[in-house]
Design brief:
The complex is a heterodimer of chains A (298) and B (363).
Chain A lengths: L2 H5 L9 E3 L11 H10 L3 H13 L4 E4 L3 H8 L7 E5 L4 H4 L6 H11 L2 H12 L2 H6 L2 H13 L7 E6 L1 H10 L2 H15 L3 E4 L3 H11 L5 E5 L11 H10 L3 E5 L9 H10 L4 E2 L9 H10 L4
Parallel strand pairs in A: 1-2, 2-3, 3-4, 4-5, 5-6, 6-7, 7-8
Helix pairs in contact in A: 3-4, 6-9, 7-9, 9-11, 12-13
Chain B lengths: L10 H9 L6 E6 L3 H11 L4 E7 L3 H10 L5 E2 L2 H8 L3 E4 L3 H13 L3 E4 L7 H14 L3 E3 L7 H11 L6 E9 L6 H8 L6 H17 L4 E7 L8 E7 L5 E7 L9 E8 L2 E6 L2 E6 L4 E5 L15 H13 L13 H15 L5 E2 L7
Parallel strand pairs in B: 1-2, 1-4, 2-3, 4-5, 5-6, 7-10
Antiparallel strand pairs in B: 7-11, 8-9, 8-15, 9-10, 11-12, 12-13, 13-14
Helix pairs in contact in B: 2-10, 5-6, 6-11, 7-9, 9-11
The chains are: A alpha/beta (298), B alpha/beta (363).
């Protein structure tokens, strides 16, 4: 870990975060649930009120991709909502036409970034030209982060989280430097927690430990059914309990198979430091978040 | 209708295939480094009994992207060069549809086993040539069909084959996906202006249905154009091999479906199955009811790259090439959903004329 990294150990991962990844279609919930949630939060005002109530109910931040829709909703509020911003932020329609990898995401983010962000990105790029020419993901990631964060309002950025689309490919490729560069850059440049989203929690924690890379947290599925816990539920639990990296558990309801409280209790009992229940997993966002916030931490 | 197609498997070739299995780890190459190629590369990198030995793509940016992601494997602009230099045991063909058949044949001719993304080609004749090449070369050929390996759909197949609802009488199936505002994307994938909806949106569903209820005898199909030159939706009726009909609705122009939404209803003489991406429900005539979602079913994949299927399918192919069991959709079977696609398109283009399957599939 870099010196900057050692300093950053003062940052503590959140314990309760409202997940809003389902807004981007990333969820294992049933189609009916997703449609219901979409209907409830379709209007920017409705989404804004939901997010605001979640913060009042005890959520420390919202895990979300800072899409145009989200920014429109946040503009309705008079106070900043702390965001664990999942990057890159690409709408699903746009993703269909993008080439895979980071380069296309950088180009997409550049189109939507304000002039200040483009300048910062250019500066970040100038320092890493050889890597950029090679298409090196660890050289491209600072450029992407500059462009993505430039679209957020002051005071909103509570953390940066790298989306599973990228992390899981880099994980499979064994790209330790990519994860090191991401966490170091987030700490040094933005001074907020650096997180990784993954659909392969057990793999990710094991490899991070092996590589001695320590982001502030990893977001991954944990639930009593073992749904989405890779490589297996048992190996994932063992990795969570063994790892020094904080885990924020998501997909707590296993696609709707178990109640939220049961999923939350399971994740906490097996070593998750924090919980990320998603909008689509709630019956009543405010009350259920209050209950989760009040539950004793194991 | 008769189209050049393999008329049977080749017994001598079968014997050669099982006798010549390479040793683990299987040396695997990936050609076509778009989204699917990268996903396969990621999954293959996690398999103990496979090792990546090369990537090929004519686009230098795609090759740079994969190297930039951290895959330290030789990359080539041309498959021929990769085959000559790296001598892979197997090649995953993930290139755009217009190029898949030719690349698959090249790999087979070089002695490699081939896993090819679906469909192999838009034209049945092209797909048949690839299958024929595989049989002639006695090399394993597998066409990808992710839907078959999604836990709920796999369970539906098992239930029907085990007779849980008795003899199948009627089937209704639909697949909807929102791609109307992304015609460019669809054309890039299919390589076909003015066609390709079935190939893009419904091919997986066809493969699952053929595997579960058999190859239909005849198809009647109509298409509608709503937003432009390409067809937007297809309605079809297919005659099932043991009597009964299959009604199929397919559209890639329905709002609100970022991911394909697939629903199948199967009426048997002893029960009914309703299966969707969310769950499977089985109702028996005795009033018994079972509902299972993904969380209730085995999740064998050890690495998640957009769900369970990719890992399950890639591993099954690797194990088959190494001498294990033949996975579904292999060799001659790979041709069956292509035959249905061909009959549907032929019927639609002729204004809904009943169209038989191409002859010689030996199903």
């Amino acid at each position: 870990m870099s010196p900057a990294g050692r300093e950053r150990r003062k940052i503590v991962a959140p314990r309760l975060v409202l997940g809003a990844r389902s807004l981007a279609g990333i969820t294992r919930a049933s189609r009916d649930r997703v449609l219901d949630m979409t209907a409830r939060t379709h209007e920017p005002e409705a989404l804004a009120v939901t997010l605001s109530k979640a913060i009042d109910a005890g959520a420390e931040a919202v895990l979300v991709s800072p899409s145009h829709r989200l920014r429109t909703a946040l503009a309705e509020l008079r106070r900043p909502v702390p965001l664990l911003a999942v990057v890159p932020a690409v709408e699903w329609q746009e993703a269909l036409d993008l080439a895979p990898g980071i380069q296309s995401r950088v180009a997409s983010a550049r189109r939507g970034a304000p002039i200040g962000g483009r300048m910062s990105a250019r500066f970040a790029a100038l320092l890493r030209l050889p890597g950029l020419m090679r298409g090196d993901w660890s050289a491209l990631i600072p450029v992407l982060l500059e462009l993505e964060t430039a679209r957020l309002a002051r005071g909103e950025l509570a953390g940066l989280v790298l989306a599973a689309d990228l992390t899981d490919v880099a994980l499979a490729a064994g790209n330790a430097r990519f994860f090191t560069r991401f966490t170091d850059y987030v700490w040094r440049r933005f001074r907020v927690p650096a997180g990784l989203e993954t659909r392969n929690l057990g793999w990710m924690l094991s490899r991070l430990d092996e590589w001695k890379v320590a982001p502030d947290f990893v977001v991954g599925p944990m639930n009593p059914s073992g749904l989405g816990m890779k490589p297996t539920a048992a190996e994932t639990i063992a990795a969570v309990e063994r790892s020094n990296v904080a885990v924020l558990a998501c997909e707590l309801r296993a696609g709707g198979r178990v109640p939220l409280a049961e999923g939350a209790a399971f994740a906490r009992a097996h070593g998750a430091r924090g919980l990320v229940p998603d909008l689509v997993e709630f019956e009543d966002v405010s009350n259920e978040l209050k209950t989760l916030a009040a539950a004793p931490v194991i | 209708m008769t189209i050049d197609s393999p008329t049977s498997s080749h017994p001598e070739a079968d014997a050669r295939m099982s006798a010549g299995a390479p040793a683990a780890p299987l040396r695997v190459a990936v050609v076509g480094l778009g989204e699917r190629g990268i996903a396969h590369a990621a999954v293959l990198a996690t398999l103990d009994r496979a090792t990546l030995v090369g990537f090929a793509d004519p686009d230098s940016a795609a090759r740079r992207n994969l190297a930039g992601a951290g895959f330290h494997v030789p990359t080539f602009a041309r498959l021929e060069r990769l085959l000559a230099r790296q001598k892979p045991d197997a090649v995953f063909v993930c290139s755009p549809l217009a190029t898949r058949a030719a690349l698959a044949r090249t790999a087979l001719a070089a002695g490699a086993a081939v896993f090819v993304e679906r469909p192999i080609a838009l034209a049945f004749r092209e797909s048949a040539r690839v299958v024929d090449e595989a049989l002639r070369a006695a090399r394993p050929l597998l066409c990808s069909h992710a839907l078959m390996h999604m836990p709920v759909f796999a369970r539906a197949h098992e239930a029907v084959r085990a007779g849980a609802i008795g003899a199948v009488r009627e089937v209704r199936a639909s697949v909807y996906v929102s791609r109307v505002f992304s015609a460019e994307s669809a054309e890039r994938l299919t390589g076909a202006r003015g066609g390709g909806m079935i190939a893009y949106a419904a091919f997986d569903l066809l493969a699952l249905l053929v595997r579960t209820i058999g190859l239909p005898l005849e198809a009647i199909a109509t298409t509608n154009r709503l937003y432009g030159a390409n067809e937007d939706e297809l309605h079809a009726k297919l005659k099932l091999p043991r009597g009964g009909t299959l009604g199929l609705d397919c559209s890639w122009s329905v709002p609100g479906h970022p991911r394909p939404a697939t629903v199948i209803e199967i009426e048997g003489d002893r029960g009914h199955i309703l299966v969707s991406d969310d769950a499977i429900e089985i109702d028996g005539t005795a009033g018994d009811h079972v509902r299972l979602s993904d969380a209730d079913l085995p999740q064998p994949a050890r690495f998640d790259m957009d769900g369970e299927p990719r890992w399950i399918e890639d591993r099954a192919f690797v194990e088959w090439v190494l001498g294990g069991a033949e996975p579904p959709g292999a060799n001659l079977r790979a041709l069956e959903p292509h035959a249905v696609m061909h009959a549907l398109e032929a019927s639609a283009h002729s204004g809904g004329t009943p169209t038989p399957m191409p002859e010689g599939l030996g199903s």
